[in-house]
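Follow-up to my post from last week.
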Amino acid sequence: MAIRQDLAAEFMEIVDSLTMAITLDRERRRPLSYLTSGKDMSITAPPFLAPDMQVCQRSTLQDVHEELGDCQRCSLCDKRKNLVFGEGSCRAEVVFVGEAPGADEDLQGRPFVGRAGQLLTKIIEAMGLSRPDVYICNILKCRPPGNRNPLPEEIRMCEPFLVKQLEAIAPKVICALGTFAAHTLLKTDIPITVLRGRFHDYHGIPLMPTYHPAYLLRNPSAKKQVWEDVQQIMKRLDETKNVQRPEIQGE
Ligand code: SF4
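User reply:
Got it. Predicted complex:
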């Protein structure tokens, strides 16, 4: 009975998400391509258009960190305790991208160290990897007050550094954790319930959106779907064992 209720709740959530996506697409006069059965529903991130989003020269992670410095580019610098740049291997094959630091991360200056972070660590270990093998970062590097959603101006100022981090690492796969990361990277409003479960294209790099670990803490039944997404990532990594790492394609 409990399983039935879970399935019914999940189904209603998907219906709500699709309804929202259709409404948004209709408002913006976009084609409802993801409703057409048999069609490829994967998304390709649009080219970098803003001048500061152009990837001109490949830098190292250290270069990017130095360029970011003690960043004051948006107002989030005022209340942060620590800037959370990201951590892991500069040669990581997988990069996990979340939304923004929370209270624990702000305090420690490290990404994903709170309860959600511990769950992400377990997911990484279940993939046969460890945190130092992968790279973990966020769209924003400073904590929004009260963990509110990031504002467009904050993203505009901070995202170029994420792009440069991804360019420096050139991973084989990117995993976008949660709605916000998926929407920001893919420049879409399509709900995560529709986006997850398949690869999309982030400037030549396969990107798998999945649920944020914080969502899993509130909805443990979604762990099964995250595991399915993660298994696809592992399969893709296996397939690309002898393939050269992709470069991020700018304009
Ligand atoms: S959020 Fe990003 S752009 Fe804003 S102050 Fe922090 S590092 Fe700088």
